[in-house]
Each structure stands twice: as C-alpha cells, then as structure tokens.
Design a protein that fits this description.
With 65 residues, this protein is mostly helical. The longest helix is centred in the C-terminal third of the chain and has 13 residues.
Amino acid sequence: MTTFQKFYQNVRVCDAQTVRQEVEKMVSSVTFLNWQRGKFEPAAQYWGNINRIADSLGYEKPYKV
C-alpha cells in the first residue's frame, strides 16, 4: 500500500487532471488537496474507487482492499 500523496506524485502530467476530477466527484476539492499534500489519507471507504481510477488509467492500484 502506498500513500495517496505518493500515488498522485507518480501520475503522468497528462493524467493528473483526470485523476483529480474523478476523485473530486467523491470528495471536495479541499479534501483532495489535503490528500495530495499528505495532511490526511483517504478513509478506507474511498480506496476501492481510487483503485478503480488508477486501474482505468493503467496505474498500479495504490490500496489493498
């Protein structure tokens, strides 16, 4: 398992906006920024959706569900 911050740092520039938009469908932009900056980690209820987003863009799933 990796942190959301590390996952997002390793996202290609061309995919960053897509990841952000998909995550912000689940949570607010403030929450996304807190996750991106490493202040908080996503609750387990979001792991499956984050994994789905990562997988759909060809990235390794960051969370073990």
